[in-house]
Amino acid sequence: MLSQSLGGIENAVIRSRREIVQHARALTYLVNEMVIMDNPLSENMILETHKILTYKVDSSDGDTYHEYGGQYRTQPVGAGFTTFTAPGSVPGEMRGLVVDFNEDLDIASKAGHLDPYWLAAKYCHKFVNIHPFADGNGRTCRLILNAILAKYAGIIVALGEKEEERDAYLEVAGRGSASQQSWDGQDMDDDDVNVTPPPWGELGYLTLSGAKKSMKNMKDALKEKLAK
Fold it and tell me: PROSITE patterns, alphabetically (predicted)?
């Protein structure tokens, strides 16, 4: 019994370490593609990011990484009262997400104003409500969020770094998903859209708060280094 318990702990530690390593590699890949290479966001980029993220990390349902990594899911999924995009509609929804993202960038460029926190929160929210993969959707959406912030705000935000912060993020994401269903069901004209908070509004605020915390931590670290 003791050996089985120790074996379970060892496996959990190995899995946790693998997740951390692959998360770092996936972020490096995505930031290199979007920021260093200045490539536009694409479906292939998202699929490759997920493939790197899940390498040698089997899903929570027992699927091997070969079976689900970098591949859109083929089964329906939901969380609580929220039902995510039907599997047959996932590829089309993901194509639409990429098109909408690049159109938003084009509009912002022509207007001469871009809010990176709003943009990152919007597409993190949209991605997680499509839930395109069998596992790793939350981690992938936060990678996309941080790649957007790295490119357009020059900062990385650690959402859910600590347990209480993770709980807060999950609560915000859950409320956003519930709001999305109400938002989708409303028949709104342009005036309504302008005054009704979008479902990703709270996530935008959380992202901005996280950015302020990250900047403060960097400032404090720099002060400490200069004081030595």
Answer: FIDO (PS51459)
Confidence of residue 108 (pLDDT cuts 50, 70, 90): very high
Range in 16-30, 60-74, 100-114, 163-177 with the lowest mean pLDDT? 163-177
139 is in an annotated binding site: yes
In the residue annotation, 66 being an active-site residue is answered as no
Task: Specify if 16 maps to a domain.
Answer: yes
Task: State how far the Cα of 48 lies from the Cα of 55, in Å rounded to an integer.
Answer: 10
For 226, other C-beta atoms within 10 Å of its C-beta total 7
Rounded CA separation 52/30 (Å): 10
Q: Distance (Å, rounded) from C-alpha 190 to C-alpha 5?
A: 59
17 annotated ligand binder: no
Section 2-9 average pLDDT: 54
Task: Check the annotation: does 141 bind a ligand.
Answer: yes
- Work out the percent of the chain whose per-residue pLDDT is above 90: 57
Whether residue 136 is annotated as binding a ligand: the answer is yes
73 annotated as a binding-site residue = no
Number of independent structural domains in the chain: 1
- Per-residue pLDDT of 144-161, as tens digits, reads 999 999 999 999 998 866
- The residue from 23, 50, 125, 131 that is catalytic is 131
Which stretch of DSSP H or E encloses residue 47?
A: helix 43-53
Residue 94's nearest CA partner among 144, 151, 20, 58 is 144
pLDDT at 197 (0 to 100): 78
